[in-house]
């Protein structure tokens, strides 16, 4: 049996909060916070703060992990990759701003400063999801439209496709037998491909 404790950053800014976490192999909270301190985490008043939010410049040389062996995301059976991709996408989807996402553009402001292309979401369509560039820029407008197209409902639908395909591939002991299943596996591999920090 292995144990692990995860530290969560408690920084809250307006309606959003920092999603940074640190997985440690500490056996109790005190030991996990000592490991966090070595990684630049700060603990005050019963709350934990990540290095970015606490202003720490500590850059540790040793990374403490629960599993000593890193697992390549695209290694292994297809059904395992489908399950990992679905879990990753669902985690990001659930943390994203809810509601219908729509692209928008702010007008040129006073003093002829350019506006911005943006995407809004939330319960009332008033939360800014992303800003993509200056108003009137064709690429910024195209990026905003693309981001708005892939709102959390689309993410949940993709998760459902990945989960359904995982079930059928698992019944075949990890073998992919149809082009539809292969398309879902290709989607899972694309989601699991490293893209820097997510």
Keywords:
198 residues, alpha+beta, two-stranded antiparallel ribbon, 6 helices, 9 strands, 39% helix
Provide a compact summary of the structure.
With 198 residues, this protein is an alpha+beta fold. The chain has helices at residues 29-38, 51-54, 78-95, 138-149, 152-171, 179-192; strands spanning 5-8, 12-13, 16-17, 21-24, 42-44, 47-49, 102-105, 116-121, 127-134.
What is the succession of H and E elements?
Answer: EEEEHEEHHEEEHHH
Largest sheet: 3 strands, antiparallel
Helix content: 25-40%
- Proportion of β residues? 15-25%
Number of domains: 3
Uncertain segments are 63-72
Please tally the β strands and state the result.
Answer: 9
> How many H/I helical runs?
6
Q: Which descriptor suits the 3D outline?
A: flat
Side by side, the strands of the main sheet go: 7-8-9
Which structural class do you get from the secondary structure elements? alpha+beta
Our measurement of the CA-to-CA distance between the termini, rounded to an integer number of angstroms, reads 30 Å
- Rg to the nearest angstrom? 21 Å
């Amino acid at each position: 049996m292995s144990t692990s404790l995860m530290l969560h950053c408690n920084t809250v800014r307006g309606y959003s909060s920092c999603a940074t976490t640190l997985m440690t192999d500490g056996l109790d909270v005190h030991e996990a916070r000592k490991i966090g301190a070595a990684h630049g985490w700060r603990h005050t008043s019963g709350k934990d703060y990540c290095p970015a939010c606490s202003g720490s410049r500590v850059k540790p040389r040793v990374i403490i992990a629960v599993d000593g062996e890193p697992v390549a995301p695209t290694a292994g059976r297809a059904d395992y990759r489908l399950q990992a991709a679905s879990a990753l996408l669902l985690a990001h989807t659930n943390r994203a701003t809810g509601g219908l996402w729509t692209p928008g553009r702010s007008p040129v402001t006073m003093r002829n400063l350019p506006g911005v292309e943006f995407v809004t979401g939330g319960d009332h369509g008033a939360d800014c999801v992303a800003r993509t560039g200056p108003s009137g820029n064709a690429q910024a407008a195209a990026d905003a439209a693309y981001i708005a197209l892939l709102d959390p409902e689309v993410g949940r639908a993709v998760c459902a496709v990945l989960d359904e395909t995982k079930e059928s591939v698992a019944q075949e002991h990890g073998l992919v037998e149809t082009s539809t299943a292969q398309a879902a596996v290709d989607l899972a591999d694309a989601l699991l491909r490293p893209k820097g920090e997510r």
